[in-house]
């Protein structure tokens, strides 16, 4: 419009006057002109690379074909291109091209069919399945310590816990021993016969001592799927709760301080924590009402 001739005055008005009349910044006008002058398909973010994607892909394929090894990932390919052959190319660019053309290492993908965890881990009655897991807590004077818990799958009640410096197989058994003593009255042979224990593949739980001990109590092991913590979701969710309520944002100097804080929380949690799946009742309230119902 700034180049048009006014029919009244016979003069052309400049860009500044026209933009002022239309209340539009001149930068928008010049930006519009620039975008019309250069096609959008030619615009590319970042600096121009000396090699096209097709040329880099050809170099990658040649490197894989001439390599003395098989099944290498994008880092090895990029390393040879960049440091051995002196070709300046980005590592992420090599990764993108290898992924788009199915050239990544075949040994680093999940093998076999995925396991479908379409069942339920919430039981219809107590003492059918428990879950156990361990997590770490930091103290300023004594370093890291371990917190092991045992959780009832039916009502999410914490039936046993143990805070210790060493997170070995013996420590992992302590919350179970505590829970079996409280629920079944004894830690003797077959005291918890029929109970199933859900756990992950931690070294404590895979140890021969741990497995032999729970079998002595009559407990059947049930392992969560590898790399799928949701299959041990009851205990994982409880660990998240205790971290949010007791661990995160708090400073502990010694393991004894952690132990005191956890002990205080366990009592409040079992008695007062409202669980939606229980009709917003606490774990202890739901368990006591279940016992009264069974006794009636």
Automatic annotation (TrEMBL):
Positions of the Integrase catalytic domain: 122-291
Protein origin, superkingdom: Bacteria
InterPro entries noted in UniProt? HTH-like_dom, Integrase_cat-core, RNaseH-like_sf, RNaseH_sf, Transpos_IS3, Transposase_IS3/IS150/IS904
Protein name, as recorded: IS3 family transposase
According to its UniProt entry, this protein's organism is Geobacter anodireducens
